[in-house]
């Protein structure tokens, strides 16, 4: 059964916009936005192409996680595989399959949409689709060559319950890992189970795409 409440599209008038910074993938935009009382204020936010993340669950209900240094927060975080949508309009499932291969050298036969989120809607337009991937197997052939922070990644498979406990205890902080594990735990305990999850090609209004 669908929730009685749902987010709704809405766009307030923008009288002017500028991009004071544009990086390789993300930028900063400044909009002059008309408020309901008629006043006009500036809103600065990070522009982002969008991301995918993969909660890969094996036959023993262990989740594939990786540890990676994140310089902005000065911590090495446990995360689930994730990556950017490299091309505008890119199919998110194709991007998720690529990231799972590149970061974990794993493929999955069963894919579902677990949950869609905005990471920090007060400061960025980044949207993330978190997939549930099951029926895992190792990919044959050479591993994808990694560099920089990814060269120090550590891979592990951890029971879902342990990750949920770690998130609630304040020991795990990566948003995709925390949201994904809590969402999966909720799905498993609901009446519909995993069969109630959306198909892998479900529409994603935040980042429209063409199905494969």
UniProtKB/TrEMBL annotation:
Query: Domain Nudix hydrolase spans what residues?
Result: 46-185
Lineage top rank: taxon: Bacteria
Q: Which Pfam families match?
A: NUDIX (PF00293)
GO MF terms here are:
hydrolase activity
Keyword Transport in record: no
What are the record keywords, sorted? Hydrolase
What is the protein name given in its UniProt record? NUDIX hydrolase
Q: Which organism is it from?
A: Streptomyces smyrnaeus
């Amino acid at each position: 059964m669908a929730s009685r409440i749902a987010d709704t599209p809405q766009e307030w008038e923008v009288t002017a916009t500028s991009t004071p910074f544009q990086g390789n993938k993300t930028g900063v935009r400044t909009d002059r936005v008309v408020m309901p009382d008629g006043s006009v204020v500036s809103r600065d936010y990070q522009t982002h192409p969008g991301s995918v993340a993969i909660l890969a669950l094996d036959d023993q209900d262990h989740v594939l996680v990786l540890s990676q240094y994140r310089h902005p927060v000065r911590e090495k975080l446990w995360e689930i595989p994730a990556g950017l949508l490299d091309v505008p309009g890119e199919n998110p499932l194709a991007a998720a399959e690529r990231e799972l291969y590149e970061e974990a050298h794993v493929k999955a036969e069963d894919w579902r949409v677990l949950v869609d989120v905005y990471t920090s809607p007060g400061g960025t337009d980044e949207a993330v689709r978190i997939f549930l991937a099951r029926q895992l197997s190792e990919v044959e052939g050479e591993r994808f060559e990694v560099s920089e922070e990814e060269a120090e990644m550590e891979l592990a498979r951890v029971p879902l319950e342990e990750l949920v406990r770690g998130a609630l205890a304040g020991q795990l902080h990566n948003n995709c890992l925390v949201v994904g594990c809590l969402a999966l735990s909720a799905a498993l305990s609901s009446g519909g189970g995993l069969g109630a999850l959306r198909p892998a090609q479900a529409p994603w209004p935040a980042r429209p795409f063409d199905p494969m």
